[in-house]
Fold this sequence. Notes:
514 residues
Amino acid sequence: MENPQWQTPASRQGEEFEMIAKTFQGLETVLATELIDLGANNIQIGRRMVSFTGDKRLLYKANFQLRTALRILMPIKHFRATSADEVYTAIQEIDWTNYLTNDTTFAVDSVVFSQEFRHSKFVAYKIKDAIVDQMRERTGDRPNIRVTNPDLQLHIHIAEYECTLSLDTSGESLHRRGYRQETVEAPLNEVLAAGIIMLTGWRGECDFIDPMCGSGTIPIEAALIARGIAPGVYRKEYAFEKWPDFDQDLFDSIYEDESLEHEFEHHIYGYDINRNAIAIATNNVKAAGLSKEITITQQDFADFVQPAEKAVIVTNPPYGERISAPDLLGLYKMIGSKLKHQFTGGNAWVLSYREECFDQIGLKPSLRTPLYNGNLECELRKYQLFNGKFNNMRAKGGDIKTAQERRMMADRKRFKQHRDFKAKLEEDPRNRFTSKKEERHEWHHDQQRKDRREFRRENRRDRHDDHRDFREGRRDSRNNDRRDFKRGTSRRDDFRKPFDRNKGKNNYGKKRID
Length: 514
C-alpha cells in the first residue's frame, strides 16, 4: 500500500501513542500483566480491553508477543455522537488522504453497546459512506471496499454515545497463531487457552497434563509458555506490515530476538479417548515443532493413574453445549473420583459451564474464576487435592486456599449479577444438550409465532368490524330503498343500466365465442 501522505500516530519517530489490546472478559488482568512485562505505560484495564501507551517498537512487540490479546488497535479519533448523522459528520472531519488512496482497499468493523445505535452494521455503513464521499469529493474517484484481507482495517467502538475510531494493526485475530493444521469440533480458542494456563500460575516448574486435550490447543500453548516462545512466530503477516511506514528492520529485530526463550526441563502430556482427536493433536504438535516437549496418547480419563512426577492438570471437558458426552453428569462424577484418588497432592484446574456438572465433581474448589468461552459464561475452578477427608485435613491445620485466593474469592464483583451460569440440564435427554444458539433461535421462533397470532387476532377483529359496518350499511341501504319504493322513488334508479334483451338468458354449457 503506497501513500506519500500516510500519517498515523506511529509515524512520528520516538513518540508514544495510545493503543488498545482486546481480549476475553476475565483475562483483562492477565493481559495487563503481560503489558507491564513488555514495558507499556499508562495501563488502564477496561471491559474486555486494556489501554496503554507506547512507541512503534511496542506496537510490533504487542502483536508478536502478547499471548492473551485478540488484536491491537490504534485509536485515531475519540468523539461523542447521539445519531448516525453525527457519526457521519465526525468521520468526515478526518483527512482520509492521510490514510487512503483510491487504490487502497478498506473495511470497517464495528462493536456497539448503545440504546441509540442498535445495529452495528448500519454504523459501519455510515462510516464507509463518510469516507467514500470525502474521497470522491476530493479526488473524483473512490477507494474500494474489501471485507477479507483489506489494505486498511478500521474499527469503531461505541459505548452509548462515546465513540472511538481505530486502525486495526493486527488484521486477522491474534488467536490464529498459525500452527493449527486441523481441528476437532468446538476447539478451545488459543488466546483463552493461554489465558487459562497463565491464570494457574504454571510457567514450566513441573509436568503438565491435559487428560482431554482434543486438538491439542492447551498442551501447545503450555509448551510455548514453558519454552518462552512468542506466539507470533508461526504467523504469516500482520496488518501493520502493509502500511507505508512499516519498519522492516525493526520488526526483524523483534522476530529474531530469542533472548526470552529457554529450555523446558519437564514434560507435557495430552490424552484423549477419541482416536481422530489424537491424530489431529499429533499433527498440530508436529507443525508447532514441539514434539520434544509434548507427548500425545490415546487414553480414557477413566484409566488415569497417579503420575510418577509432580504435575498440574488443566483441562476443558465437554459441558453439554457445543459438544457433549453420552452421560455428561457421569463423566464429571468420574473426573472428581479420579482427581481425588489418582492425583493426590496436585492441583487441578477445570473449565466448565454448568453448576450441575461441577456439583458432580464432588470436590470443594479453592478458587473460582469467571471466564467467557465465546458467549458462554464459564468458570475456571481450582481443586487442591489431598489425602483423606476435608474436615480431617483442616483439623490438622491444613487449608486449600492461600491468603490471596481468599481475597479473590471474597470479591463478589468478579461475578456478574443475575448470570445464566446455573441453568439446569433438561429432563428429556433429547433436549439435554441444546445449545444457547438453538435456544435463541427457538425464542425468536416463539416470538414470531406470538406475533403471527397477535396479527391474526387483530386482523380477525378488524375484519369483524368491517363486516359489521358493511352489514349495518347494507341494512340501512335496504331500509332506505324500501322507504323510497313506498314513496315511488328509488336511489337505484340513478344507477340502472340500459335494457338488455339478452339479460337473464341461460348460456350455461355453451361455448363462448368472442
